[in-house]
Design brief:
By secondary structure, the chain is mainly β. The chain has 1 helix and 8 strands; from the N terminus they run βββαβββββ.
């Protein structure tokens, strides 16, 4: 369910961090009983929003910069895609909140890399929701702007290579 799902991003630099949201354009999963077998999620990169800057002018400036060729280049690559490859159950001593490890192909700016991350799968009435977070190395997707791995003497202008995605994804009632 796109309307109930939440996707938050956090980007960090030497002098602090910024956070915001990105919208889910479409998504589906295939399941066997209560186990996710596969699926695909499409993120609308043109929808990147900042949520922590109060000044409308500076907020828009950051959003436009994130959409530019320095970062996600949304004119050429308006969508990012996550395609589920494998899902592993990770049993724990107390099985109240089941944990899983997901392997998926993530495509950003037309470049695909495999990522893996843990998440929890919970059920409320006839809705399932997955909750988790993943750190992504932006330089693997040719986003090198002010990266300390590629540019030197940046001082406090350096932006860290990893950014974090936190998500809560809801299914439609079944």
């Amino acid at each position: 369910n796109r309307d109930l799902s939440q996707i938050e991003w956090i980007g960090r630099k030497v002098t602090g961090e910024h956070s915001g949201t990105v919208e889910l354009s479409a998504g589906w999963i295939t399941m066997n009983d209560s186990t996710i077998m596969g699926g695909k999620f499409i993120f609308e990169m043109t929808s990147i929003k900042n949520m922590d800057i109060e000044s409308p002018e500076w907020k828009l400036k950051l959003e436009d910069h994130l959409k530019s060729s320095d970062f996600f280049n949304v004119d050429s690559f308006p969508q990012a895609i996550l395609e589920i490859k494998k899902n592993h159950f990770m049993p724990e001593e107390n099985d109240i909140d089941a944990k899983y490890l997901l392997n998926a192909d993530l495509t950003i700016r037309g470049i695909t890399h495999e990522i893996s991350f843990p998440y929890q799968l919970e059920q409320s009435d006839s809705t399932l929701f997955a909750i988790g977070k993943v750190d992504i190395d932006r330089t693997q997707y040719n986003i090198k702007y002010k990266s300390g791995a590629y540019f030197f003497d940046l001082g406090d202008k350096m932006i860290y290579d990893d950014f974090t995605i936190k998500f809560t994804l809801h299914t439609l009632p079944f």
